[in-house]
Design a protein that fits this description.
heterodimer, A: alpha+beta, 11 helices, 10 strands, globular, B: 253 residues, Rossmann fold, nine-stranded mixed sheet, 11 strands, binds flavin-adenine dinucleotide
Chain lengths: 379, 253
Amino acid sequence: MTSPFFTGEHAMLRDQLRRFVAEEVVPHAEAWEAEGSVPRDVLRRMGELGFLGIRYGEQWGGADMDTLGSVVLAEELGRSTFGGFAITVLVHTDMASVHVANAGTPEQRARWMPGIVAGETVTAVAVTEPGAGSDVKGIATRAEQIPGGWRLSGSKLFITNGVHADLVCVAAKTGGERPSRAVTMFAVERDTPGFRVGRVLDKQGWRCSDTAELVFEECFVPHENVLGPEGGGFGAIMRNFQNERLVIAAMAMAEAETALEITLEHVKTRRAFGGTLWDREAVRQKLAALWGRVAAAKAMVHQVAWRDGRGEDCVREVSALKALCGELVNEVMYACVQCHGGSGFMADVAINRMARDARVHAIGGGATEVMLEEVAKRL
Amino acid sequence: MKVLVPVKRVIDYNVKVRVKADSSGVDLANVKMSMNPFDEIAVEQAIRLKEAGQADEIVIVSIGVEKAQETIRTALAMGADRGILVKAVDNVETDVEPLAVAKILAKIVEEEGPGLVLCGKQAIDNDMNATGQMLAALLGWAQGTFASKLAIEGDHASVTREVDGGLQTIKVKMPAVVTVDLRLNEPRYASLPNIMKAKKKPLDVKTPEDYGVDVSPRLTVVSVKEPPARKAGVKVADVAELVDKLKNEAGVI
Ligand SMILES: Cc1cc2nc3c(=O)[nH]c(=O)nc-3n(C[C@H](O)[C@H](O)[C@H](O)COP(=O)(O)OP(=O)(O)OC[C@H]3O[C@@H](n4cnc5c(N)ncnc54)[C@H](O)[C@@H]3O)c2cc1C
């Protein structure tokens, strides 16, 4: 409970989030899973309570908190057992809107940040394409300069919040010799002519998170909507990935911890062979060992978040955490489903949903292998 | 009118309480602590009175360990104006008994001169249900306990009380002590911007000596036990078997 990193404000934020999840999320989220998205009024309510502006400036309604504030958000949303809900919010707060907050001009930020913090302007980030995921430099979406702005052509795949977002931060090639200077970010508003949702995608997990293929057909984007300098996109994506990956690691460990709690409850009450499952040493030891690994990984998440908040370079540590936590959460879910027996295989129980949701943690935001290469380069 | 709201830091209501092996009490090490839920309702009511223009300042008091500051900050984040922490014990395991709390509160009331003290009807840790009543007695004030509705009408307060079998509405003369029940209101969330603002609100730290009150315990805990574990139930095949078991095994019909 006590931690050298978290302050009283972090603790209070955690309490409010936990109550919000218990009262406003868990009782309704099964219906959201069936609908395939989180209702907009839930995001607005979170905006009212300040949950969407944890890291952003007071002038926009934010709280100017540090990286640990994002960790608190990710952990408490992760505890909800609805990964799709958690990712809907976290993509908006910590993966997409960061492109406006970090690279936006004063005018752009004045225009969009208040709506982002209030939950009125929901954001998405579109980098991945049918032909390029892990290899960001390999994207094919092009932006051509024309009078007054740019013309975007191409398509984006697996875009979280893609169906309902009001503002999409899109990566496109703007040319140039050096591949690392060939990408620029554009803020594309919904209903911009030439921009449409190509397909709504059906997924194994994260079912209440809307995911889309986005299509850009000679879509005109004015100069005022270019985020950051021309050719600065790749650098911005890589920098913002740090936060995204840390947040995913925090979310994953909170999910693992919650799955273990649910499973402990189950094995301690489930009767078999004249006792409970907990009386079986193989069951006990499996869960005890996983508990220790999750606690250790979580402690590293907190420590790295604290260092990141102090401005230290933690690329190696964040990459290691993304790889570690993305795999560990899946090991935990596998064991937890196993401990539930047949009931764990039923689609309508929490542990089954959590196991389906967890799979993507080893893929999205940087696949495990890609993360380990980032670590290896720095060893 | 100034409103004083005493709040207690207690074991969180979601925590599965464990009794210590030596039966000396409940295990409080590494356990989540929160504001007593009834006190949260009292804070909310005070804020509503302020929003309605019937109160102009809300002072929060907590008596306990240093960490009770966090509980006060939560009340400040909800909308209270300032806090007073009376650091009475060093160890969370030591409970300050109701009479000592009431005596300290009586002194604070003398100093602060509130028109209303809003307390929770009881703390969920020891369920004493005594502090508000003792405070009213020490002050010689009117009291309205278990309030499920509260209206301030001039120099009186109308308090609807939840009593066995129904509701009783009484009129009490102000200043008064009112203790609040569960259905009075639903406490608001503390928004994050308000959490950040609460950091800057004034919070005085005092000790029982400042008020000349002796907080040493008068009660001795003999032993604390868990409620007996419920035995596993049985499933019956049909009504006939149920009736048979009730007759022949349980002997209740
Ligand atoms: C539900 C969901 C939501 C998503 N949301 C977004 C979003 O909002 N915005 C966005 O831009 N993208 C999003 N993505 C895309 C995600 O970031 C990519 O799926 C991920 O980066 C992997 O890219 P890919 O799918 O193209 O796989 P590929 O790049 O084709 O890789 C396939 C597999 O190959 C292996 N591999 C790849 N590179 C290496 C390597 N260098 N060494 C060894 N092995 C390697 C890995 O195991 C990897 O999983 C989302 C994906 C999913 C599934």
